[in-house]
Design goal:
Aminopeptidase, 13-stranded mixed β-sheet, alpha+beta, about 35% helix, two-stranded antiparallel ribbon
Length: about 375
């Protein structure tokens, strides 16, 4: 006999806490899942704290069977996306579910009905809350934990989503390079040619002028990504949130700004993969999490190239290759030996070509954005 599934919208702090804690139970035996810090999750899902709620609307739903939480989903009306694309598309995110089609179907129905009530005709996702944050369903590459700020999910989620009439909209790739002990010769040769004739300079991020640097990064990010599929500009408060998150983990030796004609024209931000530490902390800083973080962060060996972009008129000059060279150079000096470049749109051919010129890089994880009609 099929158990009855009850869907309840999150309308109080008690249910919000149930929503937050559900993944910690679902993934308790999955060694590749990285538990996020519970304190950070409480900020993320608090409409009074996270800047996304300043311009957009979200409804959260929990699925119950026999009064036990068995799934969750967020229905997202991203007004900034709608003001750019006018496509009547809403989003779903933060989807978690037991391996039960009826539970998944009930969650998607609840999210779809809420989005229809907002006047929307399509549902796309997963995106937590937007394409500027964690996005995509892992569909290939389940044999290792995710790096910092990337998603993870069980393999069966793909079947649950596709059985609910979602189809692929776009794939996002994560490239990896492992066992790095020297700068690839081909990259060194390319940079020698670039240095011989360039009219730009690349410098390290200045932490003493971090606020001004972040404003330059925001300007480049919003301009350089404007033509990318699904891109939505960051707001002032969202860039402040990013600054707050990065300042806690960033190594300035891995962050660069390119300048030409007296202005910033490119940015590259690479961060240590703190997931190598978080996976050992169980989602808590106290009582032992702080000590674990302080101990294990010294042992981090991986990095993630989080942001890399160049203004359109300065592309094809080799700025991206010089960014990679300097990241290799400083990363090796700091003791890092592997990295991930993510995520890269499957149709971002220039970025993929630049990456694939670096010996040893390969696509090792694929994340998928889905969409379906709800009209």
């Amino acid at each position: 006999m099929m158990m009855k599934t009850i869907i309840r919208e999150v309308l109080n702090k008690k249910d919000r806490e149930i929503f937050i804690r559900l993944p910690y139970r679902l993934y308790q035996s999955d060694l590749n899942w990285v538990p996020p810090l519970i304190a950070d999750q409480r900020q993320l899902f608090n409409p009074d704290k996270d800047p996304f709620f300043e311009h957009s609307t979200v409804a959260f739903f929990i699925a119950f069977q026999n009064e036990k939480p068995v799934g969750r989903i967020a229905a997202i009306k991203n007004n900034n996306h709608l003001s750019v694309y006018f496509d009547q598309t809403g989003f779903f995110g933060f989807f978690e579910c037991i391996n039960d089609e009826s539970v998944a179907s009930a969650l998607f129905e609840a999210a779809g009905n809420w989005l229809k009530q907002q006047g929307l005709k399509k549902m796309r996702g997963p995106a937590n809350y937007s394409m500027n944050e964690e996005a995509g369903l892992l569909v290939d590459g389940f044999d290792s934990p995710p790096v910092v700020m990337m998603t993870y999910n069980p393999r069966y989620y793909q079947a649950l989503i596709e059985k609910d009439r979602f189809t692929k909209k776009m794939d996002l790739y994560a490239y990896s390079i492992d066992n790095v002990h020297e700068i690839p010769r081909r990259l060194q040769e390319a940079v020698n040619l670039i240095n011989a004739g360039n009219h730009f300079s690349v410098r390290q991020l200045n932490m003493r002028r971090l606020h001004e640097e972040i404003q330059a990064i925001k300007s480049i990010y919003n301009a350089a990504w404007s033509e990318n599929w699904g891109a939505v500009p960051l707001t002032h408060r969202e860039i402040d949130k990013l600054q707050h998150e990065l300042v806690q983990i960033v190594r300035p030796e891995l962050c660069f700004i390119a300048e030409a004609d007296g202005r910033a024209v490119g940015v590259s931000i690479t961060i240590p993969d703190v997931n190598e530490v978080l996976i050992k902390m169980g989602g808590r800083l106290f009582p032992t999490g702080v000590l674990k973080y302080l101990w294990y962060r010294r042992k981090i060996k991986g990095v993630r190239v989080l942001i890399m972009g160049v203004l359109k008129e300065y592309r094809n000059l080799g700025i991206d290759l010089l960014f990679y060279y300097k990241t290799f150079e400083n990363g090796l000096r700091l003791g890092y030996d592997h990295g991930e470049m993510s995520w890269i749109l499957e149709n971002n051919i220039p970025m993929r070509n630049a990456l694939e010129k670096i010996p040893g890089t390969r696509i090792y994880k694929t994340y998928r954005i889905y969409e379906k009609s709800i009209s």
